[in-house]
Amino acid sequence: MCGARLGVPRRPGPAPGPHARTAGGRRAGSATARRAAALKQLLQLAEIDKDARVHDARHTAATLLLEQGVDIRVIQAVLGHSQLTTTKRYTHITETLAIEAAGRTGRALWDG
Fold it and tell me: Torsion-angle region of residue 70: left (phi > 0), alpha (psi -120 to 50) or beta?
C-alpha cells in the first residue's frame, strides 16, 4: 500500500522529472524505486556483497516465516496475496523444514 494513502508524507525535495528513471528502469520517484534503494543501502550497511531485489526479499521473508511455523494463510495475508497458490510459489522448502518433517514422521511411526 502506498505510504501517501496511509497518511505518511512523501520525502521532501524536488520531484524527479517525468522521464527520470532508475538503473532498473523504474520511475525515480516511485515507491518501488525507494524500496529498492533502501534494500541496496541495507545490503551495503550489512557488508553483503550481493545484489538483491525487493522481490527476492519477499521470497526470503515468506520462507523464513514458514520455517518459524507461521501458518501459510497468515503468510498469504502478510504478502497481500489473494490466492494461496501464489503464496505457495513464494515459499521454498528448506533443508531445515524437510529434516523437521522427517523427524515428526519418524516419531509418529515409531514412538506412537
Answer: beta
Taking the C-alpha atoms of residue 53 and residue 23, their distance in angstroms, rounded to an integer, is 13
Q: Is 97 exposed, middle or buried (0-12, 13-18, 19+ CB in 10 A)?
A: middle
Asked if 39 contacts 54 with a C-beta cutoff of 8 angstroms, the reply is yes
Rounded to an integer, what distance in angstroms lies between the CA atom of residue 40 and that of residue 53? 8
pTM, two decimal places: 0.58
- 8 A C-beta contact, residue 78 and residue 72: no
pLDDT single digits (tens) 30-74: 888 888 888 889 889 989 888 888 888 889 899 999 999 999 999
